[in-house]
Specification:
globular; binds erythose-4-phosphate; TIM Barrel; 223 residues
Length: 223
Amino acid sequence: MKFFIDTANLSEIQAAYDLGVLDGVTTNPSLMAKEGIAGEENVMAHYKAICDIVDDKVSAEVIATDFEGMVREGEELAAIDPKIVVKIPMTKEGIKAVKYFSSKGIRTNCTLIFSVGQALLAAKAGATYISPFLGRLDDISASGVGLIQEIKQVFDNYDFGTEILCASIRHTMHLVECAKLGADVATCPLSVIVGLSNHPLTDSGLAKFLADHASANNAPVGA
Ligand code: E4P
C-alpha cells in the first residue's frame, strides 16, 4: 500500500518524508487555503516547494469547473513539475478532462468520489487514481470502508489500471481497514501515519526492557 500525506503544510510533508515511508502528497483547495496560500503565483510556487520535498505524485487540484478551464489549469499545473498529478472533481466536465489528460499521458486523480458508479466512470475515462472519501461518508452515517470494498470488487473484475486512493481518512483504523481490503493508496494526515506506530504494550515493554538493562548494569534508565 502506498502512503500519501493529505496536507499542504510543508513541515508536515517534510516530517512524513523523513520517516522514509512517504509515496506522495494530496492537496485540495481547502488545504491550500488553510496554509494561507492564495494568488496564482503563490499557489504555483507552493506546489513547486512540495515537489522539491518528495520523490513523486503530488496531487494539485483544478479550480475551474468547465472542461476548457480544467484543461487550461491542469496543463499549467502539470508544467510545474513532472511529479504533479492533476486532481479533477468527479463531474461530467471533469470526466471529459480526465479522458483528455489520460490520452496525453498526464496523470490524474479524480476526486470527490462517493459511489461505485462514479469510481467506474472515472476508471473508464482513464484516471490514474480515484479518490473515494471515507470520512465524509461516515459523517452522514454511510460506510466509507464499505464503499472501498465495493469499488475494489468491481475493479478486480477488470483491468483498468486505475488505483484506489482512499481519502478523507480520519483515524488509523480507516487506514488499516483499507489495507485489509487491498486498496492501493491511503492519503492521511501526518497524525494517522505516525499513529500507526503507537501501542501501549510497546511503550510498557520498552520501559521494562530499559529498566531491566539499567538494573543489571547499575546504570540510570536509558543509559
Ligand atoms: C484528499 O484528496 C481529499 O481532498 C481529502 O482527503 C479530504 O479530506 P477531508 O474529508 O478530511 O476534508
